[in-house]
What does this fold into?
Amino acid sequence: MDIFKYMEEHGHEQIVMCSEPSVGLRAFIAIHDTTLGPAVGGVRIWPYETEEDAILDVLRLSRAMTYKSAAAHIPFGGGKAVIMADSRKDKTEAMLRTYARYVDTLGGRYITTTDVGSSTMDLEYIALETKHVTGMPISMGGSGDTSTLTGLGVYMGMKACAKAVWGSDSLSDRTVAMQGFGKVAYRTAKHLLKEGANLLVSDIYTGALETAKEMGATVVEPDGIYDVTCDIFSPCALGGTLNDRTIPRLRCSVVAGGANNQLLTDEDGAELHRRGILYAPDYIINAGGIINVSCELGDVAYSVERATEMTERIYEAMERTLHVSSRDEIPTAQAADRMAEERISSVRQLRGIYRSR
Ligand code: NAD
It folds into this structure.
């Protein structure tokens, strides 16, 4: 992989490699763009097969964070970290604290939080080594688990899509097929079940499936989830699951989920559009977590009411995306990118005006 070429083409500023064999740490931290503020994004702990897989993932994820914060009108840039390890077997206090020391060397250019394979409990270890961490437990004065509001935002995004497709935003009796039943899917499911939706769920971890069954969901084989007939297909596991092999299998009217980087390529967003499937751009509707931490890092004291109110506005953000998509006759994914890029370029311009500090 030609890393510099990739970074130049996609606008990345920096990538950091971190190694400490004694604790099994092999990590990459990527900072995509800091025009709007410090790069904020979670640390993913995942057993990548190759270094190239990990680098590509961290570069794609960090870029998505830039777009997510830009579209959510948050003063953050985009960053992400990945640790090449199995969180269920390899994660230790020493590994997390060593990772945190590397985060600290970036002096606040990157602020870390949770993602797949990391939890708020892990952040307590990280906070022992760096103050550049957010999403801390509520008991420690933080804003708590980011997935709570991410789940709320995904649900609000689904409702806005339902309104556009079926004329009513009620999800009662709608069938939602969820791929992955981790932290975000669980939180989203709670809202869906409360409203009377039916859930079909797949996961590769039996513990997650047990929880889904207890909540009343029907379990589907991991690969079979693409083929089920449903109203909303909801990718809530890893990225790249919407691609030229899976899209032709979908039997839904809407795709709306919590996973980051759902589209493998831009062409996949265009293909969903061509097929008449409404795609809720991932970073528009999964922004609840970053909105929550923006309230923790802001100048005023954290308030759950404020964070919830801001997350509920994802409904309007999704409606704006649909408006731009239909006005400019472009797929929703492209509409979201256009909105985010317009914000970044307008802020870059105003930064050109000198003011004394
Ligand atoms: P998680 O680790 O709690 O859950 C992910 C789940 O997906 C796990 O249960 C895992 O077993 C399952 N999974 C993995 N591969 C699968 C496959 N092929 N088929 C079915 N299930 C599979 O992580 P999470 O925090 O819920 O995050 C889920 C997604 O949402 C990720 O893409 C993450 O980047 C994104 N996201 C999370 C947040 C947040 O606040 N946690 C915010 C925004 C976006």
Q: What stands out?
A: Residues 114-117, 146-147, 150, 179-185, 202-205, 208, 222, 236-238, 258-260, 286, 289 surround nicotinamide-adenine-dinucleotide (CB under 6 Å). The radius of gyration is 19 Å. The chain has two domains: 3-64+77-133, 147-286+316-342. The chain has a mean pLDDT of 96.
